[in-house]
Amino acid sequence: MKTHQLLFSILLVGIAFGTAWAIRGQFGHEPGAAMAGIIGGAALILVAKREEWYHKMLPVIASAAIGWGTTGMISYGLVTGYCRAGDLLNSTYGFLSLFVIGGLFGLIGGGLVGLTLNSTSANRVKWASLVAEMAAGGLIGYYFLIEQAELLMTPPRSEAWAVCLGAGAAMIWYMVRNNYTPALRVAFYAMLGAGFGFSFGNFLQITGNILEIHFNLWNVMEYNIGFWGGSGMAYGVFTSTWPSDAIPLKKYTNSLSLLVILLIVPLLVWKDAFLVSDLMKSSFIQNDESNAMFVTLLTLFLLALMNLLIRMNLKGKLRFGYREVMTLFICVFSTYILWSYLITGLFMGNFRSEQPLYVLNLVVFLLLIRKTVSPFQDAEPEIVYLKDRWTLYFSSIIGVIVLLSLILYVAHGGFPNANLRFPV
Q1: In this structure, are residues 333 and 365 in contact, taking their beta carbons and an 8 Å threshold?
Q2: Residue 381 pLDDT > 80
């Protein structure tokens, strides 16, 4: 495969996942990130155009939802404030902390996707064992890093990053022990991409504030973690050698995955955003209970419609094709966009400048995917992929992030709303 074709494929996944992550900014927490993971996982399968992966699309997409959603428990509001400090110590600390947080999103999200793709009948992932090890790793990580070492990232807020770090370390150890090298590559590159994306996105946000650009710059930061994280995940997937042995899926595997994709994750997003009691507090509802009830019922109708269209398309099948993946992708993505419009009051006159870009990105993806060829079409690739010099790439990204912090340190003298982790 030629270099430009590979970059084109990676770009498409980045666009889809970046847009979904920007929408996630309207919802937040684990469910919002999981919903973005569904869209990113479906985009990955669509762009890969690998026949045997269509059949396992549901567990792959469910893994993306769970993996990218898990790290949504981490608090990072204070961290972005550290980056706005007028001293180099607090600013650099903030940017490096964002790299850690974003990196954990990519590590676990990309890792679980990679493991699902890597699982074969000869080397099957033992999910119960993996979940138990990750849970234990999370508890151990929190106990030693927070309770004992007191390495607090954002006091007095939650230090759940340590739970995710412990869980991610346990997942890596599982991959190494069981020889899941392709999955390990996906986890690493997704980690680098999402970590860099979060830091770089905040750099763009602060630069926009300095230049007084009137735009939702927080959305720019959210888009960047999705774009770079999705691109890193795609690079890891598209440049790895995967086993062709596909495990015949049991009906209950697809049923459980579909439950996660169509009900559990969307209903959690809905519960967090569209209850009448919560909508009544919105500025565009203005304490009007009838308007709040209308939005609540409309969002439930859209959820039911999404379920109906996808289930009609799947019809209880165990084997799927490109059309089934595309239907799921469009239905979930469209629902998420419409929900974002409803939660921000677009249909009640509360226009926001970034909102047309969600639809534009979706249209661009649908137009360009017709021109993509599978990254796996050639038995012998025509390009030389980057060698896995992981230490070099990791240290280079850290160097770039420190440089970004230095640039902003020179560019401004600190913002009035900056947070300080260390006294100056």
Answers
A1: no
A2: no
Q: Choose among 268, 272, 280: nearest CA to 345.
A: 280
Task: Give the whole-number percent of the chain exceeding pLDDT 70.
Answer: 96
pLDDT at 19 over 70: yes
CA–CA separation, 247 and 249 (whole Å):
6
Residues 282 and 345 sit within 8 Å (Cβ to Cβ) = yes
Tell me the whole-structure pTM to 2 decimals: 0.94
How many angstroms separate the first and last alpha carbons of the chain? 53
Quickly list DSSP for 338-381: HHHHHHTTGGGT---TTHHHHHHHHHHHHHHGGG---TT--SS-
The answer to whether 227 touches 107, Cβ cutoff 8 Å, is no
Residues listed for the chain? 424
Q: In this structure, are residues 22 and 226 in contact, taking their beta carbons and an 8 Å threshold? A: yes
Among residues 37, 69, 48, 63, the alpha carbon closest in space to that of 119 is found at 63
CB atoms within 10 A of CB 345: 19
Tell me the pLDDT band of 106, cut-offs 50, 70 and 90. very high
Task: Please give the helix or strand (H or E) that residue 169 lies within, else none.
Answer: helix 161-177
Q: Which of 96, 15, 36, 66 lies closest to 397 in space, CA to CA? A: 96
- Give the separation between CA 298 and CA 245, rounded to whole angstroms: 44
DSSP state string for 60-112: HHHHHHHHHHHGGG---HHHHHHTT-SSHHHHHHHHHHHHHHHHHHHHHHHHH
Q: What is the pLDDT of residues 116-155, one digit of tens each?
A: 999 988 889 999 999 999 999 999 999 999 999 999 998 8
